[in-house]
Specification:
The chain is mainly alpha-helical. The protein has one domain. The protein is built from 8 helices and no strands. Helix 3 crosses helix 4 and helix 3 packs parallel to helix 5.
Length: about 160
């Protein structure tokens, strides 16, 4: 439980710099705390949620500043080719697609096969080999909110260690 809390704090800190907080009141539904709580309680993460949190975190790591919400993050990921053109914002994201989104948005290089065939299959393998994805995993499985935040926290830790 301490590990989950630590990862949530890391995710909160990394995304707080990017998202506009000045216009938020303590009872505002768009506050980061309520967003994180909603994700934790989500049984299956969708493409828009994944794009929002991954791109927000990547922007915080890379220093790019942008106003990000779920719609703009999803559309940005689609425009960059980081998500399948067939992806729907409210459809459940698979672990392979999430892996590719993480690799691309954090500008991770990957191994030999990923360099030759960049895609969800080898992105998934790369994240497993980096120990970002842990435990029983398959590229075609959906992800709970809690597991999603663990994976994203592991990616943030790897990126932080590299800088």
């Amino acid at each position: 439980m301490k590990k989950i809390f630590g990862l949530l704090v890391l995710l909160y800190i990394s995304t707080a710099a990017v998202l506009p907080v000045a216009a938020q009141s303590p009872g505002d539904d768009t506050s980061k705390a309520s967003e994180l709580e909603a994700v934790i309680n989500t049984s299956v993460i969708n493409y828009a949620q994944a794009a929002y949190f991954v791109l927000s975190s990547a922007y915080a790591v890379s220093g790019r500043n942008s106003d990000v919400n779920q719609d703009t993050a999803f559309n940005s990921a689609l425009e960059h080719g980081w998500l399948s053109k067939k992806a729907a914002a409210d459809a459940p994201i698979k672990l392979g697609a999430l892996s590719f989104l993480i690799m691309k948005s954090f500008n991770m290089k990957g191994g030999f096969l990923y360099a030759i065939f960049p895609g969800s299959r080898y992105a998934f393998r790369e994240l497993v080999s980096l120990n970002i994805i842990q435990g029983v995993a398959d590229p075609s499985m959906t992800i709970s909110g809690e597991r999603f935040l663990l994976i994203l926290g592991n990616a943030l830790k790897i990126m932080e260690d590299k800088s």
